[in-house]
Amino acid sequence: MKFGIYLPSQIEDKKLPVIYWLSGLTCSEANFIEKSGAQRYAQEYGVVIVNPDTSPRGLNISGDKDNWDFGEGAGFYVDATEEPWKKNYNMFSYVTKELIEIISTNFNVIEGTQSIMGHSMGGHGALICALKNPGLYQSVSAFAPICNPSKCAWGRKAFEGYLGPQETSNWSDWDATELVKVYNGPPLCLFIDQGAADKFLQEEQLLPNNLVEACKIAKVPIILNKREGYDHSYFYISSFIGEHIKHHSGYLQK
């Protein structure tokens, strides 16, 4: 597995906290490095940024390259339970266990002091990683996340393939809107960013209002920033990534 890591200059003198970034459909670890503009903010706030790939690669599983929204580049940050995916498509465990251990072992970081954020499929990933692991991350944020994958076409396709039919599998265990209903951990505020001109918002792939309503009922704090005129692109991410890194830094530098 490939991942990117940005090490600000302060790391030569002291251990630093980490922010993990999870990318969206079709992305590799390269997109965030090349397009987000996050490096200058990581330097300013003294945080390490780690950005993994979005799926395993090079396995040559039948069908893993047939669709842009399933298989390679589309791991959906779940641990698959269905053949032939369950052996390798364990992105949730990779992100929340293996990758954290790799970073803690090999870099000058403060062990156990980390936050997580992501975009689209990666926003979904960031939310479920935080909600399923109470206390593991100091904070969580997401750009245009797939908030209720059990109810949208992207999510249903991925869950059906990786987890099996909804009637006989645990889709709710991998859906942020369902997970907030049973969240019972330390205080956690969900910081959500959404471009108002995002075509996938109009196509009901993202469904942020479902998450907001679930949070209200469950009394889980949520902030939803709607950005007028912004779409689903990296231009949108690069416009507001500094706000997100500042937000996380407030939790990580306490």
TrEMBL record:
Transmembrane segments: none annotated. The active site is at S120, D198, H232. GO terms for cellular component: cytoplasm. Signal peptide: none annotated. It catalyses: S-formylglutathione + H2O = formate + glutathione + H(+). Gene3D superfamilies: alpha/beta hydrolase (3.40.50.1820). GO terms for molecular function: carboxylic ester hydrolase activity; S-formylglutathione hydrolase activity. InterPro entries: AB_hydrolase_fold, Esterase-like, S-formylglutathione_hydrol. It is found in: Cytoplasm. It is an enzyme of class 3 (hydrolase). Keywords: Cytoplasm, Hydrolase, Serine esterase. Its EC number is 3.1.2.12. Belongs to the esterase D family. NCBIfam families: fghA_ester_D. Serine hydrolase involved in the detoxification of formaldehyde. This is S-formylglutathione hydrolase. It comes from Cryptolaemus montrouzieri.
